[in-house]
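2024-03-11 09:14:02 INFO worker-7 job=invfold-0412 stage=load source=structure_tokens
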């Protein structure tokens, strides 16, 4: 058997270092995307997608020490989940999916996605979508449909001001809610942000989860430490360590090429957590629960 060359760079991830701490067995990267040239981008999407197939991501898993992953359909493909489903087939039972669908999706299609290990729907209020502007009405419509699927959730990518404006809508969803990328809260505001207060109340309600991902999206300090995100990340871990998951957001399509080191992102998570117990919970126990992974 040929062992992987961990000294070789991973596509879309700078550096060759590994995380400062070896990750626990069954550690999960709960937010990443696969882009495969075999699948055409949606006509609405203006940019050429990166080349980021399953084989390249497996190199990242070997470098970081993760064994489970959650493949999220990017806006690039509109409501066509073929690339994500193909990736799930390649990864096998160590992967789950989050799909993107139109508001009029039928139960038969959701059943088909469930059989392929999809466990949630993403509703994106930030990036351009194939149907035009995403609305709260679309979110509530999809949430009602998701409620018929066992073990499913709704994932949202929102601006902080939208989290604040639609707090009552988010709190009333009939399924678990997963909020992307730290709620896009500005690190300069951190726990003092109005959106953090809303997130804290949603977390306290017991039905909301937050993805500790995208540290670089609004950081002004940048890597390797993203030090300005520490107050926000630590406040979330202190508030609800049982309802947080971590994601790399590989291949980092919001950032300039050659600027993100995924091992650094794992170290940032460690800094947010402050203890190995909290970190292990976020990497192993919580994804096992929300995505329905087996316990072995």
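2024-03-11 09:14:09 INFO worker-7 stage=emit residues=296
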């Amino acid at each position: 058997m040929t062992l992987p060359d961990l000294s070789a760079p991973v596509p879309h991830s700078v550096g060759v270092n590994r995380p400062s701490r070896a990750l626990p067995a069954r550690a999960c990267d709960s937010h990443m995307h696969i882009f495969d040239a075999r699948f055409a981008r949606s006509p609405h999407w203006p940019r050429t997608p990166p080349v980021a197939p399953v084989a390249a991501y497996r190199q990242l898993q070997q470098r970081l020490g993760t064994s489970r992953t959650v493949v999220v359909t990017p806006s690039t493909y509109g409501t066509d989940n073929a690339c994500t489903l193909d990736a799930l087939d390649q990864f096998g039972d160590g992967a789950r999916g989050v799909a993107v669908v139109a508001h009029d999706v039928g139960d038969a299609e959701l059943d088909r996605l469930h059989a392929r290990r999809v466990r949630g729907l993403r509703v994106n209020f930030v990036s351009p979508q194939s149907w035009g502007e995403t609305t709260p009405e679309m979110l509530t419509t999809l949430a009602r449909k998701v409620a018929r699927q066992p073990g499913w959730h709704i994932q949202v990518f929102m601006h902080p001001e939208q989290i604040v404006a639609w707090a009552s809508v988010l709190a009333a969803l009939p399924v678990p809610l997963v909020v992307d990328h730290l709620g896009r809260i500005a690190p300069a505001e951190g726990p003092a942000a109005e959106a953090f207060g809303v997130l804290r109340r949603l977390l306290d309600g017991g039905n909301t989860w937050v993805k500790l991902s995208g540290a670089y999206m609004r950081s002004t300090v940048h890597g390797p430490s993203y030090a300005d995100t520490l107050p926000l990340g630590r406040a979330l871990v202190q508030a609800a360590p049982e309802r947080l998951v971590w994601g790399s957001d590989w291949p980092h399509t919001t950032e300039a090429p050659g600027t993100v080191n995924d091992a650094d992102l794992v170290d940032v998570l460690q800094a947010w957590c402050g203890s190995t117990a909290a970190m292990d919970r976020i990497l192993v126990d919580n994804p096992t629960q929300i995505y329905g992974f087996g316990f072995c």
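2024-03-11 09:14:09 INFO worker-7 stage=report msg="Strands lie at 28-32, 68-72, 95-99, 118-124, 153-157, 177-179, 208-212, 244-246."
2024-03-11 09:14:10 INFO worker-7 job finished
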